[in-house]
Design brief:
Strand content: under 5%
Radius of gyration: 15 Å
Helix content: over 70%
Order of helices and strands: HHHHHH
Shape: elongated
Distance between the termini: 40 Å
Number of helices: 6
Number of strands: 0
């Protein structure tokens, strides 16, 4: 299994933002925290991706973007812009993985690098989501 820095970096940053759970609902803090919990459970599989398998990379990145799209749908207004930015970032990464030549790791790396520039606010947005979650979703002692 070969290291794929761009995809691993994106997925690792998500780990930072995925903390604790609350409950289910619509656009609310509780629904936001609950979705983070769902993402934490799904995150286990991200670390096991065979980065030489373009289909697996695409599926994992699609799942990543789906989770953040759901997070953007339920996020409170004060964090919804950041979750939307990360959802767009995930879509760009998933599309890049799908369009890459599966036999050319340099093609994949180049397309994924291009995708990261498509949503330049994503890294800062991920940090803001992580900080917001730490302040608002931490499990009660």
């Amino acid at each position: 299994m070969r290291s794929f820095p761009v995809a691993r970096c994106a997925l690792a940053v998500v780990l930072v933002g995925v903390l604790a759970s609350c409950s289910d609902g619509g656009r609310s803090l509780e629904a936001f925290c609950d979705q983070l919990d769902v993402m934490q459970e799904a995150d286990v599989s991200f670390g096991q991706i065979d980065l030489d398998d373009s289909v697996a990379v695409h599926e994992s990145l699609s799942e990543f973007s789906d989770h953040f799209e759901r997070l953007a749908e339920v996020a409170p207004d004060d964090i919804s812009e950041q979750t939307a930015a990360v959802a767009r970032f995930g879509v760009a990464l998933a599309e890049a993985a799908l369009n890459a030549n599966p036999d050319d790791p340099f093609d994949r790396a180049a397309l994924l690098a291009d995708a990261t520039t498509a949503e330049p606010d994503a890294p800062a947005a991920m940090e803001q989501i992580a900080a917001y979650a730490a302040r608002n979703c931490a499990a009660a002692p």
